[in-house]
Design brief:
The protein has 175 residues and is mainly alpha-helical. The chain folds into 3 domains: 85 residues, Glycoside hydrolase/deacetylase (TIM Barrel), CATH 3.20.20.370; 54 residues, no CATH class; 32 residues, no CATH class. 39% of the residues lie in helices and 9% in strands. A two-stranded parallel sheet has the order 1-2. The protein has a two-stranded parallel sheet with strand order 3-4.
């Protein structure tokens, strides 16, 4: 979020410098479908500008606050040069679950191509992440940035937020 970039620019820079993708989650965390297209663009642009000014990289991905999106949000973000992404595994770390509960939830629900939702201010996420990553890697998963996981062309998004390559389309994922 742009507000988080304002508060913690040094953390954002460190994440980017460590090779992590820092992408857009809006400037102020509104319910995007309730906004006009102009306000949606403003939320995206303000946050992207803040991220780019700190990292030197313009975000190309957008995750709607609350997972609240519709066709107009997706279309508006594409017009602005961003792909809207969604998660399919919610760690529920925002509910202050223990590290063990977060680990169990994520490792039992994950499948190839999954995108896992974590929150940067969640209490037990830092404690849970090493075990989650170790388990997933030992199970043969490769952890990749979302930009390498998504389809860039000729796709549709279902009601669960999953991309599907359109029938007869010759597009490929960036993976």
């Amino acid at each position: 979020m742009g507000e988080w970039v304002d508060k913690y620019p040094e953390s954002v820079k460190q994440l980017s410098d460590a090779g992590h993708e820092v992408m857009n989650h809006s400037n102020t965390h509104p319910h995007m479908p309730k906004l006009s297209k102009e306000k949606m663009r403003e939320e995206l642009t303000e946050c992207s500008n803040k991220i780019e000014s700190v990292t030197g990289v313009k975000p190309i991905l957008f995750r709607a606050p609350y997972g609240d999106y519709n066709n107009e949000v997706v279309g508006t973000m594409r017009e602005c040069g961003c792909y809207t992404i969604q998660w399919d595994v919610d760690s529920l770390d925002w509910k202050d679950l223990s590290a063990a509960e977060i680990t169990k939830r994520v490792t039992e629900k994950i499948k190839p191509g999954s995108i896992v939702l974590f929150h940067n201010a969640a209490k037990h996420t830092p404690e849970a992440l090493p075990g989650i990553l170790e388990k997933l890697k030992s199970d043969g998963y490769k952890i990749v940035p979302i930009s390498q996981l998504i389809y860039a062309d000729n796709y549709s998004i279902d009601n669960e937020g999953r991309q599907h390559l359109n029938e007869g389309a010759g597009g490929t994922s960036q993976e």
